[in-house]
Amino acid sequence: MISIPQEIHDGLIAHARQGFPLEVCGILGGTGETVTVAYPMTNTDASNEHFMMEPKEQFAVVKELRASGLSMLAIYHSHPETPARPSEEDIRLALTPQVSYLIVSLADPARPDVKSYRIEQGVVAAEPIAITAEDE
Fold this sequence. Notes:
Elements: E1 2-5, H1 6-19, E2 25-31, E3 34-41, H2 55-67, E4 71-79, H3 88-92, E5 100-105, E6 113-120, E7 123-127, E8 129-132
Parallel strand pairs: 1-8, 4-5
Antiparallel strand pairs: 2-3, 2-4, 5-6, 6-7
């Protein structure tokens, strides 16, 4: 399970909408299972079908997380026109072990869908998301 504050969850959807029709991406940090910070990243591919994080931004975020005593808990990206499930490419490129992979789908723009998965060695497992209030 991954726990995400409502404000960060809403921010992921806002980021996906802002980047539409292209995919957006980013990193979620925190401790244990609880996300406390989101880092929107630049999708250097500028594509509506795949993403690649800007390497310098990614390195800076990892460095900042370590300096803050936080861990990378999740990598997120959007699917502007398809469901919130990993594509074959998402599975193939899920090379970071022990993190969640969140997908924000805008396939139904009025009802964005956010789902989380664990992907290890090509095996995909759905993961529950707990949305928490700001004061939890």
